[in-house]
Amino acid sequence: MIEVNAVSKDFGGRKILRDLSFTVPDGRITALLGANGAGKTTCLRIIGGLLRADSGDVRLGGIDVGRDPMAARRQLGVVGDREGLYERLTVAEYLSLFATIQGLSGGVRDKALQAVREELELDDLWHRRTRGFSQGERMKVSLARAMVHQPQHLILDEPTRGLDVLAARLLRKTLLQLRDRGTTILFSSHVMSEVSELSDQVLVMSAGRIVGGGTPAELLAQTGCGNLEDTFVTLAYGTAGGQKEGAPAC
Amino acid sequence: MLRGAWFSSPMGALVRKEFLETWRDKRALWMAVSFSLIFPVMLFAFTTYMVKQSTEEPTRMAFLGGDRVPLLAERLSDDQFQVEVLSEGKPRELLESGYDLVLELSEDFVEDYVSLRSAKVYLYLDSADIASGRAQGRLQERLGKLQQLVVSQRLSARGVAQQLLSPWNLQVRDVSTPSSRGAIILAAVPGLLILTLFVASLATSVDTSAGERERLSLETLLLQPLPGWQLVAAKVLAVASMGWMGALLALAALVSLMPMMPLAELGIQQAATVGSALGMGLLLLPLALLVAVVQILLALRSNSFKDAQTQLSILQIAPAMLLVVLDVSGVQLESGVWQLVPLVAQQQWLKALLVGDPISLPLVLAGSLVSLLMAVFAVALGARALRRERLLNTG
């Protein structure tokens, strides 16, 4: 479980997160929606321990990320908003590196590598260096790196950005399988169809706060909108798209 | 077995990753190898040129009308100054055909000379040609001596003591030896070796720090359960390996080229053996580590890849300038304290090994330890730098 408790964060006097609180339950996929600049990436970076919260705390599986970031990172896999590949390493070398850094060795590591190789269909790429990979191939390798040590928590920042249909499909299939195995998944996205299809829970962020949360059906009921896009716009901006202030949202 | 186990540890895997990335970077490797080889080759060319300059190349002079003054032609001529007497020819064409100088007597030279009038002699030379300029000096020196001889003979014939015309007798003695000229060349070698170390590790240090930061792959590493010092230390080892390889390559090239250099002509006894070269290589290792970590720290501080390249380019000029200034200013570095100062210490040790002078082992160990401790301290600073949020391009 990921618990974010009253987290605030400033950058150069500008408030990015304001008393942000939410919970991501185990074995569920939670989508974090928000306009550009709403604070999603900052929030995800604080959960990963890359940034420190000015106040509040984050717990991963009960571990305080601020106090024991090393222990928290052993339970965490992250796919950032860029892939973070090393272009002079082969896929096998790259994944082996991160599996070893996460403490896997010997036969356990070999099995883990073989598992992600099969699950993410990496056979053709396995001995190739990552330079020149397509966006979809890069995402597959990046996802393999995040899940090779089978973390309890998986965070993805706009994972389908730039992916073609097949790659996006594979990603969705993989996330659903991981959820069924009990992994706690939190991802940010702008693609509403994907959010509808994948999410058990949706959190809508605006100006550093959660302004709405629940299952997609609950959110639709809460706003009275007919689709998730209108629901998101209503919650994040207060009105449905180009409608005038004060007009009914949906 | 133990090696394999170490590479299976998180730190071992990290070091392996940094080495693979470093040594597969063809651009950085090419830059390191090129610079490492350029300086010994340039040194080789320079010594060869110096010897050629200092060797007395014979001057060739055409003497138009010399057949009328055979004694003068004979007195001017020796092994280093070949005089060829010609009855006719055009000075410009003769110079173009390979003569360094053309000396031409006036039509009535003999008549004027016998009548004690100032007889005219014309000297043709090509001032754009260095050899021609040198030949002019040689001719004037010879003519000056002969002129003095003729004057003294004429005065003696008239009963005047020649000493009256020579209130003093200046004699110039050049005490510079080929050896001291050669010493200047050798003095440049330690500084150049240290500069090689800086240049060879430059591209790698920028790529592994500012480059990783710009590609956002540093963020992925920072998300792993690894202490910051391990991340920095692995990068330092890889960068230092490239710098050290550059310095070793330069040393190897130098030792290989030395037998072909005309060092004996410069009065230098070749003291740098394979053994002393190995010693020099070992002495450079702690410095390679220190240089690597300083370069990484600076690159991490910079705003972009380009900014890092600029900053480090300036950094590598600074130590070279420092060493040159120390050499030129003649600061006495005999005190043992200097051997605890990184850069200065390594320069002193390399200089000593190069000319076959002994070096103090305790001071070498102490100085190397200081360099290593400074490197460790800088790694700790680097680990702190990795915690800075500015590194993540949070804008």
UniProtKB/TrEMBL annotation, chain A:
GO MF, any single term: ATP hydrolysis activity
KW Transport (keyword) present: yes
Keyword Iron recorded: no
The name this protein goes by in its record: ABC transporter
Family recorded in the similarity comment: Belongs to the ABC transporter superfamily.
Membrane-spanning segments: none
InterPro entries tied to this protein: AAA+_ATPase, ABC_transporter-like_ATP-bd, ABC_transporter-like_CS, ABC_transporter_ATP-binding, P-loop_NTPase
SUPFAM superfamilies given in the database record: P-loop containing nucleoside triphosphate hydrolases
Alphabetically ordered keywords of this record: ATP-binding, Nodulation, Nucleotide-binding, Transport
Source species: Microbulbifer thermotolerans
Domain ABC transporter positions: 2-232
